[in-house]
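Whether sequence alone determines local backbone shape is best considered at the level of individual chains. For completeness, the protein is quoted in full, as a sequence line and a line of structure tokens:
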Amino acid sequence: MELLCVRTGWPARTLRSSLALTQAASKLWVPNTDFEVAANWSQNRTPCEGGAVEFPADKMLSVLVRESHAVSDLLLPLDGELVLASGAGFGISDAGSHWGCGAGNPAVFRDPDRFSWYDPHLWRPGDEAPGLFSVDAERVPCRHDDVVFPPSASFRVGLGPGAGPVRVRSISALGRTFTSDEDLAAFLASRAGRLGFHGPGVLSVGPEDCADPSGCVCGNAEAQPRICAALLQPLGGRCPQAACHGALRPQGQCCDLCGAVVLLTHGPSFDLERYRARVLSTFLGLPQYQGLQVAVSKVPRSPRLREADTEIQVVLAEMGPETGGAGRLARALLADVAEHGEALGVLAATMRESGAHVGVGSAAGLAGGVAASLLLALLVLLVALPLLRRAGRLRWRRREEEVPAGAPLGFHNPVFDVAASKEPVRGREGGPGPPRAGTRRPTPLDPVTPQQPRPRLLSGTPKAATGSTSHSYFVNPLFAGAEAEA
């Protein structure tokens, strides 16, 4: 077991400003492994007084302790260090002496190897103005950037395997600034370097200034798959659904976004910083463009082409629910190029724009669909009704029209004929009377009309029913003739 190395103070040397080297952009590392940061503990809170503290036994780490703490148990890692700031330290306290602290639930320090160099969430620009942003691939340090790690905090960075070495302009860590590979390699091989950096990746530096006023390509195109994988890991590796139709994916961006993209073909007199300042001061500050963010950078036209064949990409991202502002700003930039393109060093400009918001488009589409369906149904009715009436399949009669003489009125229902049920009924002995002259006996196929003879009860009807005044029965004429002939 390696002995715990405890340092009693943090180096008080100040970092050399990146501006002393050149006007290069700087990227600042955000997370740390400080003891007093709640996010570094499994319960998302710092250990309470009198509680048990446990560090991962199989991890190398350096932890800065700024205050004094009383603990009941302290489980240290096999290889690591606790860096004690002035006045910081640890004391022994009985377990459970404070409410909410129990010996059975120790505060566990989270895995320090969870921080990756390629995660865009873990970096922030050193001097980015309000309203500006960077596409995802450029949020991670580019090859012309100065990288700064917090001088007054402990950290651990994972250099995972990559297609090529990670190369930046300079690295500032633990009060030192490294601008050559020899000095950086010696630092990474030291104990402090091994505690701060881990993984099989290769980190190198080189004082390569971006001397082109039109800007330089970031150089992270090869590492973009790893950048996007680290960015989307909390989301399960999938991009969230964009809130607009026809969303755009600019070069260097991992997921689609709503807004517009303007591509500028530049000449040798184009100045990237001057144009970025012009967009901010002349356009982005206007009320009609509030809620927009702008990213301006140089990108290659195609990964297969030479770096010299480049263009300026202006990404206008809509951050709020309202849409249309990015398109208006893009058209304003095109008009500005048409008027001042020669002075700006811009030779040509094109634009792309996303569609309407998903909610607005869905509501409009639903309303339009309902209106179209109703209109189509009305047209079908107006066309079909005259055709059906002309073909004779659809007839109607006005109430004032009289019924023609001799038209059939339906059949006679003897159930409701009270007069017929009261007529005397002859039995079998009387027999049916002879047919009248000029008449024939009705057949089952003949319709029953009021002019035909009314049916009579058969002789087989019970006598008790003959003298009854009930009218709940009737004679079926279909069988009356057959019964009479029997």
In short: The mean pLDDT is 78. The CA atoms of residues 5 and 81 lie 5 Å apart. Residues 123-233 form one domain.
